[in-house]
């Protein structure tokens, strides 16, 4: 019995330590990830990829600084985050050509639908 408790506590401790080692991505890593996804779906040129990378890096940096702001108004933070994302979307949209804009709109629509489906699945599974 004592051995079982010891083994279980050891396993729980290991899982806790393993979870603590996962670090948040830096703004540069997040910007690179967003750029890579857009490059994959929209066939961006090198110049476009560099401009998009800059836009996403700016967004990621601003979002990180927003997280450090101490405020009691959660809605205000959400509105600020939404405005940062919208501004970035406009900057990226300005970089794309007409074909890429259509592909981007289609890709976003598909992502939104997939998100709604996953959200519906989790609410059905919980209820």
UniProtKB/TrEMBL annotation:
It comes from the Bacteria. Keywords: Signal. Residues 1-20 form the signal peptide. This is LTXXQ motif family protein. It comes from Mucilaginibacter xinganensis.
């Amino acid at each position: 019995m004592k051995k079982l408790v010891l083994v279980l506590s050891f396993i729980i401790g290991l899982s806790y330590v393993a979870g603590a080692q996962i670090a948040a991505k830096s703004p540069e890593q997040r910007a690179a990830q967003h750029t890579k996804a857009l490059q994959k779906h929209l066939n961006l040129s090198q110049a476009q990829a560099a401009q998009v990378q800059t836009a996403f890096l700016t967004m990621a940096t601003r979002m990180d600084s927003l997280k450090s702001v101490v405020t009691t108004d959660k809605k205000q933070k959400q509105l600020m985050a939404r405005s940062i994302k919208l501004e970035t979307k406009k900057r990226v949209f300005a970089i794309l050509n007409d074909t890429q804009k259509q592909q981007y709109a289609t890709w976003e629509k598909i992502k939104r639908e997939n998100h709604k489906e996953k959200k519906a699945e989790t609410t059905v599974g919980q209820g």
